[in-house]
Design a protein that fits this description.
Elements: E1 2-6, E2 12-17, H1 25-37, E3 45-48, H2 52-61, E4 66-69, H3 71-79, H4 87-96, H5 107-124, H6 129-136, H7 139-142, H8 153-156, H9 160-174, H10 182-197, H11 207-221
Parallel strand pairs: 3-4
Antiparallel strand pairs: 1-2
Helix pairs in contact: 1-2, 3-6, 4-5, 5-6, 9-10
Length: about 240
């Protein structure tokens, strides 16, 4: 289990690594709880695939955060329900939902993607209903990135950063064949991931983008005022 993050200044950081026997709720929740016990605040945004155990653990560990579902993983899910001869066409139509949205971040951009998704559904619902249902059932999770700064959209709409480093990990462990034990395995994987993380590109932070993220954090983490509680009144002496 691995977690990466982006700091408030745009820098990437390798947060943690832990072994687990499964990807169920409990192992993921314990992993996230360890990160928070070491000082990790709740992130504004969490990017995941659709693994049920991970999703459930994130919702319990960081209930105020919003979650973006990986567009690349969902594209694979959609295409798995389409005949091979039509996959190129459907794939292009899928990415047209999210690409080149010429609107500022916020509800307007989310609504634009929803309209495009509705057009996708109307086009393919009779030919590939399972593929359409796969898209529309999680559309709200797929468009979360559109609430964030435009310059971040391409980087925060998928988990490709993780996938690339996992590929490097598999390459290094494959040549060994069999490791002496869990500790040596963890040390090797940590070393590979730590080295890979040094070459990451961060995110560009503009003043407008920083203000938007600050506004999102206040919106998510500042509880609304209770209208039933009256404010104290002070009088001059």
């Amino acid at each position: 289990m691995v977690a990466y993050g982006i700091t408030t200044t745009g820098g990437p950081v390798f947060l943690g690594l832990a072994p687990a026997a499964s990807e169920g709720h409990d192992p993921w929740f314990d992993f996230l709880a360890d990160l928070t016990s070491r000082g990790l605040r709740s992130p504004v945004l969490v990017i995941t695939d659709g693994a049920a155990g991970l999703v459930s653990a994130v919702e319990h560990a960081f209930p105020a955060a919003v979650r973006q579902r990986c567009l690349v993983h969902r594209a694979r899910n959609v295409l798995a329900k389409v005949p091979v001869h039509a996959q190129a066409e459907v794939k292009a139509a899928y990415w047209q939902i999210f690409d080149d949205i010429q609107l500022p971040p916020g509800q307007g951009a989310v609504d634009e993607a929803a309209q495009r998704a509705a057009a996708f559904a109307a086009r393919y619902e009779h030919s590939y209903p399972a593929a359409v249902a796969c898209l529309t059932s999680t559309l709200a999770e797929l468009t979360v990135h559109l609430r964030f700064p435009v310059e971040h959209w391409q980087r925060i709409r998928h988990t490709n950063l993780l996938e690339r480093t996992f590929g490097e990990t598999r390459r290094r462990t494959k040549v060994i064949g069999r490791l002496p034990g869990e500790r040596s395995c963890l040390k090797l994987v940590w070393a590979v991931l730590d080295r890979a993380s040094r070459g990451w590109r961060g995110l560009t932070y503009t003043p407008a983008g920083a203000r938007l993220l600050q506004d999102l954090r206040r919106e998510l983490f500042t509880p609304p005022a209770d209208p039933t509680i009256s404010k104290p009144v002070t009088t001059a002496a």
